[in-house]
Request: fold
Amino acid sequence: MYSYKINHLPKRTCEITIHIPIADIKKEQEIAFDKIRQNLEVAGFRKGKVPKEVAKKHISQQLIYEEIIKSLIPRLYDEVVKKENLTPIISPRIDLVKAKATEDWEIKITIAQPPQVTLPAYKEIIKSIKSELKKTNIWVPGKDTAGSEKQNEEENKHQLLNKILERLLLESKLEISDLVIEDELNRRLTNLLDDIKKIGLTVEAYLKSKNITIEDLKKNLTQEIEDTYKLEFILMEIAEKEGIQVEKEDLDKLFTNITDDHQRKKAEENAYFYASILRKQKTIDFLLTL
Reply:
């Protein structure tokens, strides 16, 4: 029977160390071997009917270990997460600390959980921002034309939203797990590298064109990622506090506006994703009307 211990790290990061006795690993090896044998094809035998002794000559130990890792680790991970009421927000980082053939196994799984958010007095902050903007946006006769009135209204709304988000970001208290930031940073750097290659540039040429170093690039991206995640969780916390929800009617209206049947079906299958976007927009609308 496996055992585990949990180490709670800063920034809502958590390390789970799982110890698996060699006796359990041997049982898993037998299960993995039988599973692989079911799909094994050897000349002279039907698929799934290869004798055990023959199969042993065609199934490597490496393949068996790969099957164990693919099936055992996710199972243990799910069990521990449920038992401990953990709430991972991204895929875990998995490290095989010890995985030798004749010894107990030790696995370290690192997870990131949602940050604990302490909100400022956001209603008072927004009232203060609106008061300041009214003083700076004083109407002058002849300044605006009828054609630009709507444009000015949108610009003012955009300016108000930016100032609200800036203050919320500045005055809210929360920390994002380094695991989340590192994962997103690696994803963005990989995508950027692909984009650079597509336009025929080297990384060095791209950085030179931007007049930055690779360290500057990583620093800027890290700050952008951290701010983006912080704002997401700040808005989620406000939505929870204000009871802002997305109703079925909201989603139905959204899906009805998608005329392509295939695209609409895909959207409906990802209803949770669209619900989160709608809830975020509802929260922003709420803040703007305070």
User: Anything to note?
Assistant: The chain is about 65% helix and 10% strand. The two ends are 56 Å apart (CA to CA).
